[in-house]
Design a protein that fits this description.
Shape: elongated
InterPro entries: Cys/Met-Metab_PyrdxlP-dep_enz (IPR000277), PyrdxlP-dep_Trfase (IPR015424), PyrdxlP-dep_Trfase_major (IPR015421), PyrdxlP-dep_Trfase_small (IPR015422)
Protein name: Aminotransferase class I/II-fold pyridoxal phosphate-dependent enzyme
Mean pLDDT: 92
Radius of gyration: 29 Å
Cofactor: pyridoxal 5'-phosphate
Helix content: 40-55%
Low-confidence stretches: none
GO molecular function: transaminase activity
Largest sheet: 7 strands, mixed
Family: Belongs to the trans-sulfuration enzymes family.
Length: 594
């Protein structure tokens, strides 16, 4: 027997870390002794036979995995189909063996219970859960804790060396893990094996965890100006306070790599003393940014930051993995080190839950205790440093909500792109509206959006203001209030319905007037988050609200919009163009057939 075969078999032993066995039969003997089973009894002989097959099967399955890794990239499509279905059926066979244990296991448990009628006494659920393996959707695992196998296995679990042995749902939960795997696959694509994700109870919890893990007391942080108001408050009122983390904030007002490089160099000069005393300089950016939906040159910024060993944290919530895939850039130096999403928005899409995620390279996210990879000690990983102790985990019900929403994300985003392009151009046709969106070809941010976003598609969030119209506050407020019910007066974004609000009074009210104006937010600024609803119906409602409340004050105001015929042509042309781009992304038949 090879050393590899024996090592793989030992993983199943109840004495996996202390075994003295040098063969599979010796592992079997140890197992029977561990549980006090007489090997010469009928039960002992049957158990020994079963255990020996299991030890050998573990070694064989690991050999299958090695062969798969060696051959998967070199076989054709029909062989991949065969590989998949053969392993799928093998999973059913293993599960069938587990299920066959159910009746004798229950009978033994019942015999231990005897006549016990203690209130709350229930059956032992271990094998009842086996059939859940075949659920067509992820199982919602509603449990706080888990049954463990034996002392050495649970010890490994506490050391982070037994990934399938969960201890406590605050740390790991099967539904939560399903979601983490799904977002990594979607965001990192061909590089998914290099990344890991941790899910949190909200987007803000995810951002707080990421900042807490990356930053140390007194560090310098370059932050893009137009970040979500809650993030501004977290940084300004907690991280930057001298009696808290004393983080020195440097606000970056631009969007291009050139503007960022100038800002970064200035930060190095202005805070040279801190940096000379061992403090670090890192970067936090949001792209597309809230509330305008404008895009930063993420690859360019990441390359510059990495030249100076700065870590780059990116909030990519508004892009979703449909509009941008920053972790799939072919040049690793052009990728951010961390990507954060608020699942609450488009990825879930229903507005029914709050959740967030941080994605990073696996060695920065988790290592077993005692390990050190790429000079990064296990104690610095996000799991042990933050996730393990803070408790802002995502529960299984919310994880299931997000997983369900993800199934329709690409189709929803295509619809939102169409609606955004149509509605922004409709607004732009009226001289009283100033549209702040990369969807407008003449906008100063359009070039970066075209270069970095999928097909140059715009974010579905943008702003528009009516400062040049000179409306009094009362007229504007009456017009804004009349936009219901077509436009939802809600605070969150990323749902299927179109939502509108005034950032100065809601999402960015934490900023004072001067900070608001730096962020291009005025009293008449409206933040619009396009949904998947009928954009022509939205336009009609918008025009009628203007007819009702603005026309009596500004004669002929509503007549300055583009005509109904022009809107029809705009809608059809845009829908056809975006749909063609979307469907052109699908693999060709030649590729699919191999």
């Amino acid at each position: 027997m090879s050393n590899a075969t024996l090592s793989n078999a030992k993983i199943l032993s109840p004495k996996r870390n202390s075994t003295q066995a040098e063969s599979i039969p010796e592992l079997v003997t140890e197992q029977l002794e561990h549980f006090g089973i007489k090997p010469d009894s009928a039960y002992g002989q049957a158990l020994a036979n079963a255990a020996e097959h299991l030890y050998q099967s573990q070694a064989d399955v690991m050999q299958l995995w090695d062969i798969t890794q060696q051959t998967l990239n070199n076989i054709d499509q029909k062989e991949k189909v065969a590989y998949f279905n053969a392993k799928k059926f093998l999973s059913f066979q293993i599960a069938k063996i587990l299920d066959s244990l159910q009746n004798p296991f229950r009978a033994t448990y019942q015999s231990l219970s005897g006549q016990d009628t203690t209130a709350g006494k229930s059956h032992y659920p271990l094998f009842d859960n086996v059939t859940a393996l075949f659920s067509a959707t992820p199982v919602v695992v509603r449990t706080a804790t888990y049954i463990y196998a034996c002392t050495e296995w649970v010890d490994d679990a506490f050391q982070g060396k037994e990934s399938t042995h969960q201890i406590y749902s605050r740390l790991l939960n099967p539904t939560n893990i399903s979601l983490a795997n799904a977002i990594v696959d979607m965001e990192a694509g061909p590089f998914a094996a290099d990344y890991l994700a941790w899910n949190f109870n909200s987007g803000m919890a995810a951002i707080d965890a990421m900042l807490s893990n990356v930053l140390t007391h007194g560090d310098v942080l370059v932050v893009s100006r137009n970040v979500y108001g809650g993030v501004f408050q977290l940084l300004h009122d907690y991280f930057s306070r001298a009696n808290r983390m004393d983080i020195q904030l440097v606000w970056f007002d631009g969007y291009s790599a050139e503007e960022f490089e100038a800002c970064f160099k200035q930060a190095q000069q202005d805070h040279a003393e801190r940096l000379a005393n061992g403090k670090s300089l890192h970067v936090y950016i949001e792209s597309p940014c809230n509330p305008h939906g404008l895009v930063l040159d993420v690859p360019g910024i990441a390359k510059i930051a990495h030249q100076h060993d700065a870590l780059v944290m990116l909030d990519s919530t508004l892009a979703t993995p449909v509009l941008a895939q920053p972790l799939q850039h072919p040049d690793k130096q052009a990728r951010p080190d961390y990507v954060v999403h608020s699942y609450t928005k488009d990825i879930c899409g229903t507005g029914a839950t709050t959740a967030g995620v941080v994605i990073g390279e696996a060695y920065r996210m988790f290592q077993s205790k005692g390990d050190c990879v790429n000079g990064w000690d296990w104690s610095r990983t996000m799991f042990w440093d933050v996730y393990y102790i803070k408790g802002a985990f995502l529960d299984s019900e919310k994880a299931f909500d997000v997983l369900t929403g993800m199934k329709t994300l690409p189709q929803r985003m295509m619809s939102k792109v169409i609606n955004t392009l149509v509605f922004t151009q409709f607004l732009q046709s009226h001289e009283a509206f100033r549209v702040n969106s990369s969807a407008i070809a003449s906008h100063k941010n359009a070039a970066i959006s075209q270069a970095t976003m999928q097909h140059g598609w715009p974010c579905s969030l943008f702003t528009v203001d009516m400062e040049s119209a000179g409306l009094d506050r009362d007229t504007f407020v009456r017009f804004f209030d009349a936009l219901e019910p077509a436009f939802g007066h809600q605070v969150s974004i990323g749902q299927t319905n179109t939502i509108i609000l005034c950032p100065a009074l809601t999402s960015h009210s934490e900023l004072d007037r001067a900070e608001q104006e730096k962020a291009q937010i005025f009293m008449t600024t409206m933040r619009i988050a396009m949904g998947t609803d009928n954009v022509k119906a939205l336009i009609a409602h918008f025009v009628n609200a203007a007819r009702l409340h603005i026309d009596p004050v500004v004669n002929g105001f509503s007549e300055q919009f583009m005509s109904a015929e022009e809107i029809e042509r705009l809608y059809m042309d845009t829908a056809m163009s975006v749909s063609q781009q979307y469907f052109s992304d699908m693999p060709s038949m030649q590729e699919l057939l191999g």
